[in-house]
Amino acid sequence: MSDDRRPTLATVAARAAVSRQTVSNALNAPHLVHPETLERVLGAVAELGYRPHGAARQLRTRRSGVVGLRLEPTADGISGAVLDRFLHSVTEQAQLRGYRVMLFTAADDDAEIDQYGELVDVLGVDAFVLTSTHHGDPRTRWLSASDVPFVTFGRPWATTSADDRDPADVADHAWVDVDGAVGTRAAVEHLLDLGHRRIAFIGWPSGSDVGDDRRRGWERAMRAAGATGDEELDRLSISVVDGVGTGVLAAERLLSRAQPTAFVCASDSLALGALSASRTLAAAASGDQPAVVGFDDTPVARAVGLSSVAQPLTEAAGRAFELLLAQLTDQHRAGGEPADRAVLLNPRLVVRDSSAHRRPPT
Amino acid sequence: MSDDRRPTLATVAARAAVSRQTVSNALNAPHLVHPETLERVLGAVAELGYRPHGAARQLRTRRSGVVGLRLEPTADGISGAVLDRFLHSVTEQAQLRGYRVMLFTAADDDAEIDQYGELVDVLGVDAFVLTSTHHGDPRTRWLSASDVPFVTFGRPWATTSADDRDPADVADHAWVDVDGAVGTRAAVEHLLDLGHRRIAFIGWPSGSDVGDDRRRGWERAMRAAGATGDEELDRLSISVVDGVGTGVLAAERLLSRAQPTAFVCASDSLALGALSASRTLAAAASGDQPAVVGFDDTPVARAVGLSSVAQPLTEAAGRAFELLLAQLTDQHRAGGEPADRAVLLNPRLVVRDSSAHRRPPT
User: Fold this and answer.
1) Nearest CB to B300 within list A55, A101, A300
2) According to the model, what pLDDT value does residue A48 have?
3) Closest by CA position to B21, among listed A144, A81, A227, A60
4) Within 10 Å of residue B293's Cβ, how many Cβ atoms?
5) pTM score > 0.80 for this model?
């Protein structure tokens, strides 16, 4: 249904036979309005179901109902799709709870911090959702110090050691994250079940928290399956910058030096490259095509039949919003149990043609 | 640099040795404040460079500096990437001009119209950017009738006939669009240059304005190249719902009934299907692999080497914002030359491996 008859300040003024300024005064500075007039105006407001303008409400409540989120520049368009899908989910989850999402862009962390000040002071933004957190992130420090509610999609990596996985210990602010190591581990176990043993890993250069986490899951699963030597693990893994072309080169190098029968990759971009190299190999040698598993279950993976690890983005957005609301609606921010402010979700392996076939015993 | 020292209402109050309420009154209801106090507070405001809170500014200027944009649910994740990239561009172009983008979701046009009322009345949104316009769109009628500034990414199809391409005639509101027919025509001409003659088209069911436009470009280029009969054009074209799987089936059917040597497709999803069918055919018959051109230059196209027609999304977002600003900053909305409110941009063909090779003469 359309909203043509939604009452405005003007229709209230007409009904009460006063000026628009008088209606505005009645709502925002009632002491300026004669009591009889005030009664007539408020009667018209109630009768017509008029909702006062947000700005006036905002001055009274000090709440805008608006959450800020920085749009990341999309790097290759494949991995960027994950953050775009998270944005869709955050917007839907916010709206379900009566909030809106305001976007902004910033070239780096410092520029993002400058934006926070502007968004809070000038536009009255209530809270922020942060993405792409990293080691020593200055943004969370600034927001904590400024007492601005926020939640991060991504854990506070600085305090997460490889073997310390208790969320309660790392909850110096509210965060939601997906356990990448669980995802790559599930990929390796799926490939082991199919009969693969030489399972290679194509990842990012070490120092990227997310990338190190994804490599860790592969390494642990391989050790659990009997790959004992560091040398063997080094031979079966390689680090390259993200991309399809680098994925091709990485897969070719691994195929020639370690003859893997399967690849687990830190991203769908790398996996797409590995898939292409695997097809070329199978066509040339008419041998079995190596299996490939990617990460993030992007549209590309669905389109080309690539198995991939899917992040539960709708759930992540919903949980992030719950953590924000807890801060916005009570004094939960400073206090509360740390464990209540940290949510680590498990991803889910989606199996497609690229890794669906059982290996013949060798 | 960080913003730790940005002045707030509290620092102004401390400097002027008054309460925060007095500072607020000095800014928003100066008649309530003693003249000497007022002078001291405004002196502190100027000295500290304090910017009053957006909500107060908003009440005075009736401008929030916020533009609303509806997030579309992503259908298959491939075509949806185009609107996500447009969103990135709109956010960047808005911010360059001192505006912000507020997101919302809606299940259909009527729900979107309901949201307009809420966003304007309650949140003070200044203007809207609309996407996915269509024949008889009720949203533009509502916004025009409500005198809310807006611009559409997509032309007002209702008044565009096949042969009437003068933008001045169809500018009953401000719009920016990309000429899809120019894109598919460029794809056909590229394939003709390579020696192809039997160039098929895989499109969407007729009735979709964008889809009909893309088919039109193929048809005109084919007629210009000597494909005279309607029967021949019918045999060389097919309509299916968008998707990779439907693209495979459509290409197989066309290959068996018309032996095309090339495909022009209305989307990258369909083109990806045609590419897969073409590879299968070439592998089975060890003949030449048909050439394929998609539409929208999505990340999938870049990843798999698919030629595709690229929309100039950054330029479209920038031009859309200029059209909005013209409405927000002067009385341009009702008056002005219609041609100034309509912008039709040309897309650009990006050639990749899927159509890069010259045909041998047949």
Assistant:
1) A300
2) 81
3) A60
4) 32
5) no
